[in-house]
Design a protein that fits this description.
The complex is a heterodimer of chains A (113) and B (112). Chain A is mainly beta. Chain A contains no helices and 11 strands. In chain A, the strands form 2 sheets. In chain A, strands 2, 4, 5, 6, 9, 10 and 11 form a 7-stranded mixed beta sheet that branches. Helices cover 0% and strands 55% of the residues of chain B. In chain B, the strands form 2 sheets. In chain B, strands 2, 4, 5, 9, 10 and 11 form a 6-stranded mixed beta sheet that branches. In chain B, a hairpin with a 6-residue loop joins β4 and β5. The N and C termini of chain B lie far apart (41 Å). The relative contact order of chain B is 0.33. Classes of the chains: A mainly beta (113), B mainly beta (112). At the A-B interface, β5, β9 and β10 of A face β4, β5 and β9 of B.
């Protein structure tokens, strides 16, 4: 079984809809991250969390919110989706002595029409 | 501000034709440099961590090296299954505590 899972894997939604992307991990890591990836722009950090009570904004947090429900679960919400949020979204985790080595999930392809 | 630049943007090789990918970085106090492999539509797969200049890591046909300004990913006798995007990232700590800065990636295509 995969250490980092993301659901859904693919989602098509309409402008203005609220959508939640979920991430779960079995690696026992305390740190979790949400990135988006766009062609030509690389990976950009949306939010990150170092433990359940510690949540921080990344470089592109506008239009997004997150919830850390447990050490193993970190959700990303788009409150009112817009077409330029169409992208690949990745969850990542890190922890232990090499807390900066991040391990990525398989990604969610989100299309906003 | 931490910066990572990868070159070339794309590289096409014949099977067996060895080459290198470059990752140049500008950071204040490098704590770690990371290489990832990413297949289309999939999440980045962790390959290597390098911590200090002079360090080398190897895995199958891949060898990563690090200097004070750049890292190289050497691919020896590549096979078509090595085709992927290779990402480089750095961790500098300080104001970037806990966060990685990624390069844009090099798209490698290996033809049979």
């Amino acid at each position: 079984d995969a250490d980092v899972t993301q659901t859904p894997r693919n989602r098509i939604t309409k402008t203005g809809k609220r959508i939640m992307l979920e991430c779960s991990q079995t690696k026992g890591h305390d740190r979790m991250y949400w990135y988006r990836q766009d062609p030509g722009l690389g990976l950009r950090l949306i939010y990150y969390s170092f433990d359940v009570k510690d949540i921080n904004k990344g470089e592109i947090s506008d239009g997004y919110s997150v919830s850390r429900q447990a050490q193993a679960k970190f959700s990303l919400s788009l409150e009112s989706a817009i077409p330029n949020q169409t992208a690949l979204y990745f969850c990542a985790t890190s922890g232990g002595t090499s807390f900066y080595e991040q391990y990525f999930g398989p990604g969610t392809r989100l299309t906003v029409t | 501000e931490d910066q990572v630049t990868q070159s070339p943007e794309a590289l096409r090789l014949q099977e067996g034709e060895s080459s290198s990918l470059n990752c140049s970085y500008t950071v204040s106090g490098l704590r770690g440099l990371f290489w990832y492999r990413q297949d289309p539509g999939k999440g980045p797969e962790f390959l290597f961590t390098l911590y200090s200049a002079g360090e080398e890591k190897e895995k199958e046909r891949l060898k990563a090296t690090l200097t004070k300004k750049e890292s190289f990913l050497h691919i020896t006798a590549p096979k078509p299954e090595d085709s992927a995007t290779y990402l480089c990232a750095v961790y500098a700590g300080g104001t970037s505590y806990g966060k990685l800065t990624f390069g844009q990636g090099t798209i490698l295509t290996v033809h049979p």
